[in-house]
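Task 17 of the worksheet. Students: predict the tertiary structure of the chain below and write it out as structure tokens. Keep your answer in the requested format; marks are given for formatting as well as content.
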Amino acid sequence: MAISVTTYETTDPRFATDVYRIFVTAYSATKGSVYVGKTPKLYKNYGFDGLKLHEWIALSLYEDEYRNCVGFSSVIKREDVWGNGVRILNRFMKSKHYRFENNKRLLSNETKKMMDQQLKVAKELGYDYAFISRESNKKRNVLQHYLKYHDEVEWNYPSDRYKMFDTDEFIPSCWQHIAWTPLQPHVNNINIPSITEDEFIEFKKIRDSKD
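Model answer:
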């Protein structure tokens, strides 16, 4: 199955139509287990409220040879938390009917192409850095395991956990491991609030003791 990858800004005329295609794709996933990488409780993230379209700056689609949508992700901004940074591969979903992986790598060429396109758009729009995040119960930043197959990009793998959304409560899913890369020559650090792994574990123990 030949897969094409397309990424464009939300100001593009195709955006409204393709968002509707994403809704249909996500709905099909909830009904027939067509897509991989998500558990049923996470499908709420793919409704109108869950997608948070007002945060999007770009959209990426996987399409097959018949222009069926077989996967997607977005690039989003949250200035109040991430400053002039963006998250790529946001709300990433893909079809289980296409083999995105092979025996030699854990990151498919199609996904690498999507990442490259998203980084290019973010850079052209003037953002300082981009990152990928992953919610995990493991202490180690597991993103390095996957992104070592995309070493054309200068990835940084901090050991701390970084804040994903604005909240005064301790919510474990708010604090995630990230891999980030600079988009502008002057950028050598990021300004996202963070906590250490030990702090995360301690905060989680305190929260669990109150349940």
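Marker's comment: The mean pLDDT is 86. The chain has one domain: 4-210.
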